[in-house]
Amino acid sequence: MSGYGPLRAGLWIKSRDEWPVLRDQLGPPPSGARIAPVQLRLAQDDARAAAAEAWDLDTVAARLRAAEQRIRSVRPATRPDGATLRAYHELVRPVFQTLLETPGLPAPLLPADWPRDALLATLGDAIGHFQPAAGAYLRELLARYD
To answer: Which of 112, 134, 135, 138 would be 88's cystine partner, CB 3.0–4.6 Å?
Structure first.
């Protein structure tokens, strides 16, 4: 149910209609269960409030900001070695996990200060810092097996 947010017990919402895909993935409902897809048309402010509640956007924003701070705080010297590759992996892997868990909502449903773009910019800086040395080390390792 990736991308769906729980608005109430038994009521899951998504910003776009993907019911045909979900229906094919779920198959028939269990005995006694009922699935009733509906479309809600909400005013922009109501839609924004529903999204904030269903996806707990305050908590998600806090995780995005924490990930950005974590990246900003780490800039060790880099050499083409295993320690740099390990540090690079340990720094960016949790960020990618956080990004995967972030709902892909359209901009009108997000708060004005949504931190995803700032995190992506900081992540780009970190990749630029680590990748040359980490990449050189990986190429060196791969060359041993050519």
So the answer is: 134
> pTM of whole model > 0.85?
no
DSSP-derived 3-state class of residue 41? coil
Q: Phi and psi of 13, rounded to 5°?
A: -125, 160
Take residue 108 and report the two structure tokens written for it: 């009108």
Q: Which of 39, 41, 37 is nearest to 26 (CA)?
A: 37
pLDDT in tens, 32-61: 988 888 888 899 999 999 999 999 999 999
Per-residue model confidence as pLDDT tens digits over 1-11: 567 888 888 78
Q: Which amino acid is at 14?
A: K
DSSP state of 109: G
> What domain range includes position 38?
5-143
Name the domain count of the chain: 1
Among 131, 122, 45, which residue's Cα sits nearest to residue 88?
131
Element (H, E) at 8: strand 5-8
Cα angle 85-118-90, degrees, rounded to a multiple of 5? 20
